[in-house]
Amino acid sequence: MSMNILVLPGDGIGPEIMAEAVKVLELANEKFNLGAELTFDDLGGAAYERYGSPLADETLERAHQADAILLGAVGGPQWDAIDPALRPERGLLKIRSELGLFGNLRPAILYPQLADSSTLKPEVVAGLNILIVRELTGGIYFGQPRERKVLDNGERFAFDTLPYSESEVRRIARVGFDMAMVRGKKLCSVDKANVLASSQLWREVVNEVAADYPDVEVSHMYVDNCAMQLVRAPKQFDVIVTDNLFGDILSDQASMLTGSIGMLPSASLDANNKGMYEPCHGSAPDIAGRGIANPLATILSVSMMLRYSFNRADAADAIEQAVSQVLDQGLRTGDIMSEGCESTGTAGMGDAVVAAL
Amino acid sequence: MSMNILVLPGDGIGPEIMAEAVKVLELANEKFNLGAELTFDDLGGAAYERYGSPLADETLERAHQADAILLGAVGGPQWDAIDPALRPERGLLKIRSELGLFGNLRPAILYPQLADSSTLKPEVVAGLNILIVRELTGGIYFGQPRERKVLDNGERFAFDTLPYSESEVRRIARVGFDMAMVRGKKLCSVDKANVLASSQLWREVVNEVAADYPDVEVSHMYVDNCAMQLVRAPKQFDVIVTDNLFGDILSDQASMLTGSIGMLPSASLDANNKGMYEPCHGSAPDIAGRGIANPLATILSVSMMLRYSFNRADAADAIEQAVSQVLDQGLRTGDIMSEGCESTGTAGMGDAVVAAL
Ligand SMILES: CC(C)[C@H](C(=O)O)[C@@H](O)C(=O)O
Ligand SMILES: CC(C)[C@H](C(=O)O)[C@@H](O)C(=O)O
């Protein structure tokens, strides 16, 4: 199995954290004989500066050729005022869509070593381990028509469209159920079926798919209630499956519950488990270039990639163990710092993981 | 000024909690010479049973005639399987829309006496006092077209539309700014302008309205980030203004941060401050009929009504003080119970507020 990996460091802290992840990947490559070949390119603001587009055609071509993609993060205030069609986020949305990466896995895990970092009471979040499965190439993010115009009465007016088809719901529901099967066998599908037509179809199709997974306990929850329950009793959840927009909101909320968003990787998979892997956090322009960002989410994205796209649980486990060991040693970047621990920077953390590996 | 109030107890715990609120309102009526006249009717499931519709024409007519409306809560599992167009929620959505109640005020306040009830650490939520201003008659809740169909390839397909016009955004933005002026002079507008056309218009119009409120500090936040920030550092917010769907999600999340959702009233106002007032919590079918629901959110909705729709700060203050006094006495319903306090039921709590008043 070939292992051609396209590395897209992106913007803000992206290049710094990616440098550490690449160090770790290169060591794992040697140690476990992975046969990984890395190609580097730009996405987002960096691509806009270099190619005049947040996703150049040649980059997209490289992404198609690659077996997997590692992404840092995109975006920054310097591109706030440019043509919306050229903004960094557009590159991210386009690569998701063009590669058909419809299955977005966003784990929210509380690392026991970081239990204090959560703003929630320890008893509410201890042992938290939720997987949010977000539909990533459909819904209101890509729905057509979307338009902005001036009405006859002279008023400005804009609208978006939220569409879902049966097959789009079915395939993401399957990802949710498959994940539930290898986890706690509980799936909560989140929608707004008391208001939205698309949600009514969503709920119906999830119930149909459920028939193929008799071992999974299925429930349905309205998105407003889910946002409440994630605060009230987050440990009630195992796998949550939901649409693109709700998944965007709920996964950010859930990751913050852990207090360690700097630790959380994510995967975006196509129908053949080809994937793009990236940290859950953003490009953090405010701390970019200062060597203080936490590289662990990106390092753990490498491990997620080896596990899901290349079936290399051996190397994936080793990286995760190395990260855990570094946390046990008490090493912390600023975002996860707490009393009695030893403060370090981006490179220091990366080096420590390399040493542990 | 006439004070004709339409009382709609609704479903689930609605009738129980409303009975207590009415006791309090009747006493305030006497004590403060309010001249309130009450009419009673049904909404939601109760209306479906009585009239065959979740909002009967004659009820809507009474709502139009009234100066203000007091609502308990609607919905319950016994109506899950009926024609979606007749479900309890439809009555609620229709009354909001028909009366033009576009301005939904949802405070999230942590009562000092109940600080322990929050799942968040005390230092994160102590003194929390956020007001969410939610647009309530537009956006994806009411957008047309919305449709469900079968595509040419035989697949089921459904879509919703998320529209906003300049005037819709402007009037809700004004409510947000007006509220900020009488509070902490900080307004955060929440949207998803990096993805949605409607959000781009939203942000543009909020910025235009801001010019009329130079004393208010304005910021913009993406909805996913806001869901994170509400967990990370909720006290950074004063007033949040947002669209119908985002407001639904964020207000539920914010109310749960306080740990005392049984305490939170809400108001839905039209252009002339005519309003409908209701607790933030739902109809809680699981505890309906057992006399254990917390009536305080409904009692505080009475006080909100007297303040916003009738300018009777005197009576509103007195009710709020009575509630505070009862909490100081240590009286608690189950949802807010904590060690060392005295447990009571719905009627016990209502009677205590009446006594304190
Ligand atoms: C940058 C933005 C377009 C993106 C999204 O909304 O999907 C981000 O928030 C995410 O969750 O990956
Ligand atoms: C019952 C439902 C339709 C309603 C809404 O989504 O607006 C409720 O969740 C609310 O927030 O008042």
From TrEMBL, chains A, B:
Segments forming domain Isopropylmalate dehydrogenase-like: 4-353
Annotated metabolic or biological route of this protein: Amino-acid biosynthesis; L-leucine biosynthesis; L-leucine from 3-methyl-2-oxobutanoate: step 3/4
Residues annotated for NAD(+) binding in this entry: 76-89, 282-294
Positions bound to substrate: R96, R106, R134, D224
Annotated Mg(2+) binding sites: D224, D248, D252
Keywords (A to Z) from UniProt: Amino-acid biosynthesis, Branched-chain amino acid biosynthesis, Cytoplasm, Leucine biosynthesis, Magnesium, Manganese, Metal-binding, NAD, Oxidoreductase
Catalytic activity: (2R,3S)-3-isopropylmalate + NAD(+) = 4-methyl-2-oxopentanoate + CO2 + NADH
Main location: cytoplasm
Cofactor: Mn(2+); Mg(2+)
Localization: Cytoplasm
Coiled-coil regions listed: none
Source organism superkingdom: Bacteria
One Pfam family in the UniProt entry: Iso_dh
Residue numbers marked as site, Important for catalysis: Y141, K192
Role description: Catalyzes the oxidation of 3-carboxy-2-hydroxy-4-methylpentanoate (3-isopropylmalate) to 3-carboxy-4-methyl-2-oxopentanoate. The product decarboxylates to 4-methyl-2 oxopentanoate.
Record-given protein name: 3-isopropylmalate dehydrogenase
